[in-house]
């Protein structure tokens, strides 16, 4: 394959936990500045995909290419926001400390923050409207506030690609809208955003492109072409509920783990 700069390319990757394959022969390409919703049932490999994209999980096979270079040649161009349930919020750090972590790849872990770092952190806090929480411990924040802190940290990193794993789970409507607004701002800056979600309506209405997976690729492309009854039945099976008005919901309690 001829690689094109300023693009994310996932080429036939397989990822496993021990002897259990979670992703198999997954391939897709994301143009620079795109906004992608990743959809699939629990256990489909969405979180695994994100961890592979930042090098937290090794590939069994295939490769990931960013800006024409294989994964590992990039210092700070990918920002990753995990699910809130994966974070130990009891860790004794302030909001400002967490957001400053977004600058570590720029200045190193042991260097003192300089004026530019402090300015970037200040702007990031302001953008997410949490400046007044700067010196509050993260353990004292609500779920929505914690999400805004991680969004501010991602902004401070000044990434080319932003990965967000289920950012709309367990947060209030105001934080959901703040997240969508941030994605709009990032698109204006040509930042690629890849977000996993269980909300099919959100994926259909707020994202032009959808990646539908269940351990391998089911469909990828414009939302109206991907989120069809046929494709969703392939991905979700019996956990997909067809409503009388034609809309489709996922019965999450019945999704395979």
In terms of topology, how is this protein built?
Elements lengths: L6 E11 L2 E12 L3 E5 L6 H8 L7 E6 L2 E2 L7 E4 L13 H6 L3 H4 L7 H13 L15 H15 L3 E5 L7 H16 L3 E5 L3 H7 L2 E5 L3 E6 H4 L2 H8 L3 E3 L5 E3 L7
Helix pairs in contact: 4-5, 5-6
Task: Give the key terms.
single chain, 257 residues, alpha/beta, six-stranded mixed sheet, four-stranded antiparallel sheet, 9 helices, 12 strands, 32% helix, globular
What does this structure look like?
With 257 residues, the chain is α/β, with parallel strands linked by helices. It has a domain of 71 residues. The chain has 9 helices and 12 strands. The strands form 3 sheets. It has a 6-stranded mixed β-sheet with strand order 6-7-8-3-9-10, sandwiched between helices. The protein has a 4-stranded antiparallel β-sheet with strand order 2-1-4-5, with helices on one face. A hairpin with a 5-residue loop joins strand 11 and strand 12. Helix 5 packs parallel to helix 6. The protein is globular and about 50 Å long.
Helix count equals 9
How are the strands ordered across the major sheet?
A: 6-7-8-3-9-10
Strand content: 25-35%
Rg from C-alpha positions?
18 Å
Helix content: 25-40%
- Looking at how many chains there are and whether they match, the oligomeric state comes to single chain
